[in-house]
Amino acid sequence: MILLYILIAIAFGLSLWAQFKVKGNFNKWEQVPASSGMTGAQAARTLLDRQGLYDVPVEPVPGRLTDHYDPISRAVRLSEPVYYGTSIASLSVACHEVGHAIQHKVHYPMLVLRHRMFPVVNFASGVAPFLLMGGFLFQALNLIGIGIIFFSAAVAFQVVTLPVEFNASSRAKALMISEGFIRNHEERGVNKVLGAAALTYVAAALLSLLELIRYILIFVGQSQNSED
């Protein structure tokens, strides 16, 4: 159990470091103009049109690093620094979100699975903490067991998210190169920006998985004690 707590602490530190790297790499490459001179909005619109996704709008949203693809509204939403920016960072993030729109169009299996899981996970992730808290507080093994099952759904969702994010990034990089948005010497910046973002998902999934293992070990231990 001590080793597990050490691993959790390491994973937590990795998560903090990954978030720091995301902001640091974005800030750094936000200062480097892309040779194409395109804004993030122009790059996203161009890629969407060339993929036949004319009905998918590109919309600016307030905030920083608030970029996302909305599968319900089928819209690419870019933070203002990305939407209006002409930097390597802006193009990288914009094209990554377009990668999700393309996944949606081609029914990328892991994205389809994530969409189907979302309603269940949305409910489970909200209920699980209360079940676990109540179970540990009142020493109720049934509540702990149900809480673990619900928490497992949230962990599974994070694990499924990993290939979705990696695939979107690989699509983005390939399209940016093939469409001439960036040149060879600019690929390093794209890799830095998207690689740091991917690391945050890895760290979050690892931390959640270790937390799940901790809950299971506690549950097993309390089950054994109740039998003695």
Automatic annotation (TrEMBL):
Keyword Transmembrane helix recorded: yes
Record Pfam families: Zn_peptidase_2
Keyword annotations: Membrane, Transmembrane, Transmembrane helix
InterPro entries (UniProt xref): Zn_peptidase_2
Transmembrane region(s): 120-138, 144-166, 193-217
Protein name: Zinc metallopeptidase
PANTHER family assigned: MEMBRANE PROTEASE YUGP-RELATED
